[in-house]
């Protein structure tokens, strides 16, 4: 991969391309700043150049640290492409191999972002899952909610909220069914907890 120094003032920063739920993490950016001051070499940021602007796709914390440190340039992997190319990269490849580890909610946000796009939603559940780091089952749940008439307001909800709502009815049914088993089967309670663990694992939670 070839990289070169890019003037920080030329980088177009759009927060909509930040795939993290909370945006730039202040303490992390501060740690990066300290490391840069001590001479630590960071991986180059990724920008897409459309002939006019350099759209930041990966490296929000590094850019923030460099700006606060008073640097004027930063090492960058400069690729040809549009802002939309930068957006797709940000939601599928950014931070996948380095930097602050993506949280479960960050990954869910990325999956939801793709599913709410007319073009990218045409990708299969497994492909979106592979690119965003969530389970294909979760992608299927979110896709179903987005296409359901009664969930017209889902676009304003987090992927976490969507998953919780979709699973709520299923959990109630499982509890009711297994309660009947517990009334007659001495190991029914264990079977219920095992089933509940399996369902919660699908949406990425642990209650124990």
Describe this structure in words.
There is one protein chain. With 208 residues, this protein is of the alpha/beta class. 51% of the residues lie in helices and 12% in strands. It contains 8 helices and 5 strands; from the N terminus they run E-E-H-E-E-H-E-H-H-H-H-H-H. The protein has helices at residues 26-37, 60-69, 83-92, 104-115, 125-132, 136-147, 159-184, 188-203, and strands at 4-7, 11-12, 45-49, 54-58, 73-80. It has a 5-stranded mixed beta sheet with strand order 1-5-3-4-2, sandwiched between helices. The longest helix has 26 residues, at 159-184. Residues 152-157 and 181-208 have low confidence and may be disordered.
In terms of topology, how is this protein built?
Elements lengths: L3 E4 L3 E2 L13 H12 L7 E5 L4 E5 L1 H10 L3 E8 L2 H10 L11 H12 L9 H8 L3 H12 L11 H26 L3 H16 L5
Parallel strand pairs: 2-4, 3-5
Antiparallel strand pairs: 1-5, 3-4
List its traits.
alpha/beta; 51% helix; 5 strands; 208 residues; five-stranded mixed beta sheet; 8 helices; disordered C terminus; single chain
